[in-house]
Design brief:
alpha+beta, Jelly Rolls, four-stranded antiparallel sheet, single chain, 13 strands
Length: 203
């Protein structure tokens, strides 16, 4: 793994938000092998969610691991350790998404459940087919697009989860399977303004 090769491209979204695209963070051969193992072994679920006034089935599969020790592959534990050392954030969980083909997608959103702090650093490892990754200001405006290759790393930092929204849209051109691995942290998922209840101890 190469955390910051010369090809790394960082975009300053605004004064307090940024995104970085790090090509080849995981070598292509390792990326394809990991993709195959995750498709075969991760605990995939078809989830639904509220949209306006009705529940809809999410057009992708999801596997969540709240404890990195339970990760379905040792390579993900190694990746979490490397990212924790680089960004000084304890990445101790995973949220993995499986886009089965070009018809699977996710709409505009921010990672609110895992980012309760004003600023967070969220690494996302892309495996498999190339798909557009879009990010736009929450208040409205033009989107910025990235198209990561298998093994590339996308990192969102600063206030990107609060002030910006991101998506992986459907596309007309056929595409093979893609898996995105989001590295999460209990630290970042804890609101620093929340006071502990009397008699409670930090977890």
């Amino acid at each position: 793994m190469n955390l910051f090769p010369r090809e790394a491209h960082r975009i300053q979204l605004d004064e307090t938000s940024w995104i970085a695209h790090i090509p080849g963070w995981l070598g292509p051969d390792h990326a394809e092998e990991l993709l195959a193992r995750l498709i075969a072994s991760a605990a995939w679920e078809q989830r639904d969610r509220w949209m306006v006034n009705r529940r809809v089935v999410e057009p992708r599969l999801t596997a969540e691991y709240t404890d990195i020790a339970d990760a379905p592959d040792a390579a993900l534990r190694d990746a979490a350790a490397a990212l924790s050392a680089q960004y000084q954030v304890p990445y101790d969980g995973l949220w993995i998404n499986f886009y089965r083909d070009h018809r699977d997608s996710t709409g505009w959103h921010g990672d609110w459940p895992t980012c309760k702090r004003p600023e967070c650093i969220v690494p996302v490892l892309s495996l498999g087919a190339r798909r557009r990754f879009l990010i736009k200001p929450r208040a409205g405006g033009k989107s910025i697009g990235l198209t990561p290759e298998s093994g590339d790393l996308i990192v969102m930092g600063g206030r990107a989860q609060r002030d910006w929204l991101h998506s992986v849209p459907k596309q007309a051109r056929p595409a093979g399977p893609r898996v995105s691995v989001n590295f999460s942290s209990r630290l970042q998922a804890t609101d620093p303004r929340r006071r502990p209840r009397p008699g409670s101890s930090p977890g």
